Amino acid sequence: MIDPKTALISFCNATETIVAAFAHRITPDIIPDGQAYPFARIKLVGSEQAYHMNGEGYKKHLLQIDVYSPDQTVANTSAEVLRFALSGYKGVMGDLTTGRVSAKIVQSNWNTTARDFWRIIEVEIPTND
Amino acid sequence: MKPGLVVDASSFKKALADVELNSPMLLQIEGAGASVLVNGMRRRVPVDTAATKTSVMSHIVSNSALLVVDDVGPETDYAPFIEYGIPEKPNYPIQPFVRPTAFEDFAKVINAIGYSFAQLVISRWPGASK
């Protein structure tokens, strides 16, 4: 199975607006120590799998992208750059060929310890791969 | 020789016409879908003390003969941190259970609601035991 996190990161690293906002600081699962702001981290929340007579069919992946920045405006604009690039996208995403991708910003939080802003984007990726 | 098939929908239409949805009926139909969600969340939730698991339930917000609004989910204060993560510990692993249930069990919910409604119509079928 193609990892949707890897595919999504490949897409982000190939999209100019996202590279301009994050400079390749989008990682799967774990945020590396000492990561410079703004950065994002991608987690897989769930996957739906349909079957047909010949085996596997349609799949749909739900991913969560966490965007962090100490500046509220940067956090908002960076999250919006990701949402805008992903929402409605259809085509090649790394090793995946996707149907229309759905992306929405679902939560905004303030981290009192690290003193940064945290935005959560939910991304649905439908695919046959 | 040609096989003959006659479809008579008049009984079905009559049965449908006999179904006058009221508030308790709609709650019963919705309850079937809510049960699927409750079971799905309880199956997926990580368990330590089982406080969150046992708190997952259906919360009827409003109901009428036309609309039922039901918030299905956990009640513990820390459930959102299990679902989305903890702001103070960005690398703490998330163990989502609400969104995967809504995402993966959607078809089962629709099936359960449809089956529940079909049972209601069948119970009004001429000759069916009431």
Radius of gyration of chain A: 15 Å
Oligomer designation: heterodimer
What count of structural domains of chain A?
Answer: 1
Number of strands of chain B: 2
Tell me how many strands of chain A there are.
Answer: 7
The proportion of residues in beta strands of chain A is: over 45%
The secondary-structure class of chain A comes to: alpha+beta
The first-level CATH class name of chain A:
Alpha Beta
* Number of discrete domains of chain B: 1
Overall mean pLDDT score of chain A? 92
Explain this structure:
The complex is a heterodimer of chains A (129) and B (130). Chain A is of the alpha+beta class. Chain A has a single domain, classed as 2-Layer Sandwich (STM4215-like), CATH 3.30.2000.30. In chain A, the strands form two sheets. Chain A has a five-stranded mixed β-sheet with strand order 1-2-3-7-6. Chain A has a two-stranded antiparallel ribbon with strand order 4-5. In chain A, strand 4 and strand 5 form a beta hairpin. In chain B, 20% of the residues are buried. Chain B has one domain. The model of chain B has no long low-confidence stretch (mean pLDDT 88). In chain B, helix 2 crosses helix 5. With 130 residues, chain B is mostly helical. The longest helix of chain B is centred in the first third of the chain and has 22 residues. Chain B has a two-stranded antiparallel ribbon. The chains are: A alpha+beta (129), B mainly alpha (130). At the A-B interface, strand 2, strand 3, strand 6 and strand 7 of A face helix 5 of B.
